[in-house]
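Quick one:
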Amino acid sequence: MDYELMMNGNVKLGQKAPSFQAETTFGEICLEDYQGKWLVLFSHPGDFTPVCTTEMIAFTRAHQYFKDLNTELLGLSVDSNSSHLAWMYDIYCKTGIKISFPIIADRNGEIARKYGMIANDISNTETVRNVFIIDDKGKVRTILIYPLNIGRFIPEIIRTVQALQMADCSKGSTAANWMPGQPVIVAPPKTFQELEERNAQIQKNRNGISWYLSFKEPAEKCVEERENCKRLEKENKK
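Output:
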């Protein structure tokens, strides 16, 4: 880990996610525990706060959707583990909902600063609402930042994971407002000959507007991988 990253939280898309070991409400964990799985690492400003409470409930209700995508959830704040546990218990007593994923107690802020979760112009101690989507190879693929007073939209985080996985599998891209089951964008041609061939395909198949924007149905293996992931998860629950 270089000094700049450690001090400034200069995490970038495509880089290896900074490693950590931490105390959580589920015991000691480290980033390497999630090898082979996708991970949604998200921070919240503090326990027993209204927006954060709604998010914890919403993430728990959506946890199975993430699991179906080979994805785990991991929360973080600079509050203590005792505070996290008391908060989780209060949520359970009031709603009957058990928070189904670990919450990191980052008391010294080491992990928060490593990932750039603390905005010093807002607070020197509170984490803002960051979301890091880390893929099954340990690379940071998406970074989302929300202000302290705006809750996250969980379906969009799920959709982003789905889009990333589909883009990887199909070696394509996803369009604006893409949803699972829709075509993906074909990678643009790299030579003039490929450009001419692409235009001919578009004229024949009516699957685009020009050589630089055309679509294809996802490969069967991509759809199958997603369905197999769901099937295995259901079998493991039996």
